[in-house]
Amino acid sequence: PGLDDRIRLTYADRSTATNKNALYDSYIRAIRWASDRIGDSGVVGFVTNAGYLDSNSADGLRKCLAEEFSSLYVFHLRGNQRTSGELSKKEGGKIFGSGSRAPIAISLLVKNPANEQQGQIYFHDIGDYLTREEKLARIVDFGSIDGISQANAWQSITPDQHGDWLNQRDDSFQQFIVLGDKSGTESLTLFENYSAGLKTQRDAWCYNPSRQAVETNMRRMIDFYNAEVDRFNKTHPDLDRSGREAKVDGFINSDPTKISWTRALKQDLVKGKQHPYDKDASIRSLYRPFTKQWLYYNRRFNEMVYQMPRIFPDAGAENRVICVSGIGARSGFSALIVDAIPNLHTLDTGQCFPLYLYDEDEQAEEPVESRMDSLFGESPQPVARSRRYALTDEGLEHFRKSYPGAEMTKEDVFYYVYGLLHAPRYREQYADNLGKELPRIPCVPGIDLFWVYVKAGRELANLHLNYESIEPYPLTLTVHGDPKLTDADYQVEKMRYGKNGKEKDLTTI
């Protein structure tokens, strides 16, 4: 408890991350303990997970290390196999073989009160595409900090204002309008509201390509839950609330073939709440990119719905949503437009920015008749919903001021954003920013270029939303030998791109 309190007062206090649970990892606890243990003078040496070097949640840790130590020597051995494709190859071999998929770093942290300068960070990256054996050989060759110094291989790092050591952000990014902000620090945002995707905590029950399978599975689980409520009430009829809570974990049947328990569902059982099956809760959803499934959309059996009830309140609600990958996404930044409820992991724990928001008041550009299903309450009641654009008036005015005299709508700006988020130059220039914060949107020079991006955004949206019905890309099939294809010809052993000399031909698989 004392150690975790120290983390809370130092690393966590200095962090800007929303979720700080990762700061209580054992190796970070060890760093905190060791730093306190040596007092004002001494050396700390560790071989640890290297995630703290660039993760968003460890920004407070990096800030504190630079303040607490006079010199920091970090030898980055790479080896992050929680990546894929070319990035995984560049990370090279795993230092501990099959024992770890994490990147590894040797860190030597020095407190020397005689040093006039504090927080001098020296960094050495072992390099790309090295095998485990090659990495270990280089460690042996260097032998010590002095060995790297003699090779003139230390890189001096000056942290930026965000506490970043590696992959530092482009400060010009801060000049642009942000897609959204829930911290209250931004005076101008483009979207009024946004949301993470749906988190059921029981995907195997709530999702299925077959609507009938979703209905069968959920009816079976709900019947079992209600039976458990009855059994609990009969077994413990006289217990108060705290007594029921103390008994629930040891009482319930946790057979995963019958039910998937979550904290919220256990609390409903403690309260004696029974839930009916909602026949109108099965709707189409996007589980993964270009992978539609049926979803049982119901607040009682979806652990976290976030703001989705205002974006897709029910099966009849029409919307378009720009999903962007979450901060720190392992596979890099990505964006995808969807027209159905996205899962939390459709794009790596992403955030979703809608074209429309649905209200139950009169703030509407267009009234929409709908119904309030059990996502919002126990008893379905018909209600009149109102639909309005999710983009702010201030956001629209920001773009109109940048292009005086241009007649643009919020829908135009929405598709401009989608087109820009796919621009290679934008992604490359601001790659480090996009990995650490929500996208910000610049105004491109000139109204003509603005309309180019609007057009590109609309065309991309058409491809990404209507991929099941658009005209297929023309295919040229080259058959060597017998032109008669059999089933064996379609047995895929490995897919790879074609080659144009030494370069990949991305038009050929």
List keywords for this structure.
509 residues; 20 strands; 18% strand
Please tell me about this protein's structure.
This protein is 31% helix and 18% strand. The chain has helices at residues 2-12, 26-37, 59-68, 85-91, 132-142, 145-150, 203-206, 211-235, 241-251, 263-270, 308-311, 393-402, 410-421, 424-429, 431-434, 447-465; strands at residues 42-49, 71-78, 104-111, 120-125, 155-157, 177-178, 195-196, 207-208, 282-288, 291-296, 321-324, 335-338, 341-342, 351-354, 356-359, 366-372, 381-389, 440-441, 498-500, 503-505. It has a 5-stranded mixed β-sheet with strand order 1-3-2-4-5, with helices on one face. The chain has a 4-stranded antiparallel β-sheet with strand order 7-14-11-12. Strands 8-10-9-13 form a 4-stranded mixed β-sheet. Strand 19 and strand 20 form a beta hairpin. Helix 9 (241-251) crosses helix 10 and helix 13 (410-421) packs across helix 16 (447-465). The longest helix has 25 residues, at 211-235. It is globular, with a radius of gyration of 27 Å. Mean pLDDT is 91; it is low at 369-380.
